[in-house]
Amino acid sequence: MMTAGANTAALPECIDVEWLVMGPLYVDQEGITALQTNREANTALNLPTIPRDWRVRDGKVAIVGYGPSLRDTWQHLRGFDVIWTCSKAYSFLLERGIVPAYHTDVDFRAYKVAYNPVFDPRTRFVMGSGVHPSYFERLKDRQVAMFHVILPSGGGLYGTKHHHSPVQFDAGLQTARVAYDMGYRDQHWFGIDAGFKAGERFAGPHDGLKPDSATVYIGGEPWETSGLHIREAMCAEKMLRGLPKLKAAIYGEGLLVHFLMARGAKGAPV
């Protein structure tokens, strides 16, 4: 959904991440029209915003993305009362007997609706207003709340009924931001890696983008990643620096936690 400044647009094959400079955020114009069309249709459904009784104060939550490290860390989730997934991490956990308390999607494309074939009635769905309208058709018998992802340009009108959440880079970071907005300050990130593992970008099958691989160096050690993933890492850094009350413990041996430590940003490894 978002990319970093132009200085990271063409990532060299080998760089040292300590020298990267975070540029301004700008909107990826692909899909803006579709986002606006989806939002208009979904807003007309008159779905509720995030209810007050869903909010917490200084709560603890596991934010679960679909990065490759999830294959190695998912069993740690059994110790969490509140688990919040995005993308295909939802089905990944259901298949292993774990029912997320919350799930979020924000992508405007229709094929994303089929990513998770089963929706457990115990899950609360906190959905971006830009998802394809057929997503809400699938959720008509579930507990659903809607929010707007606020774009800095090209976003159009949003209305005042639904919660506004500043745009982040992708579904994982957007989920973390919405959880923060709901009061979850103590966050534990799973499957949010910003890099590859043994050539794999995800914890399982995924029909998303397949960016070209690149090598970056962190503390002299090589890491397999891509220009897209480095933008994700820089956007994570920007969010963590901009939310001083947010604590993020990052699980797994993904690039992100090493990237943040090299750059002096908060984000504790587990």
List keywords for this structure.
270 residues, alpha/beta, sialyltransferase cstii, chain A, nine-stranded parallel sheet, 23% helix, globular
Describe the protein.
By secondary structure, this protein is of the alpha/beta class. It has 7 helices and 14 strands. A 9-stranded parallel beta sheet has the order 9-8-7-6-5-4-10-13-14, covered by helices on one side. It has one domain (2-269): sialyltransferase cstii, chain A. Strand 11 and strand 12 form a beta hairpin.
> What's the helix-strand series?
EEEHEHEHEEHEEHEEEHEHE
Outline type: globular
What is the helical fraction, as a range of percent? 10-25%
Q: What is the CA-based Rg, rounded?
A: 18 Å
Q: Find the CATH topology.
A: sialyltransferase cstii, chain A
Largest sheet: 9 strands, parallel
Task: Round the mean pLDDT to the nearest integer and report it.
Answer: 86
- Roughly how many Å apart are the termini? 28 Å
Order the strands across the largest sheet as they lie in space.
Answer: 9-8-7-6-5-4-10-13-14
Structural class: alpha/beta
In the CATH hierarchy, the architecture is Alpha-Beta Complex
Number of domains: 1
* Low-pLDDT ranges: 1-12
How large is the share of residues in beta strands? 15-25%
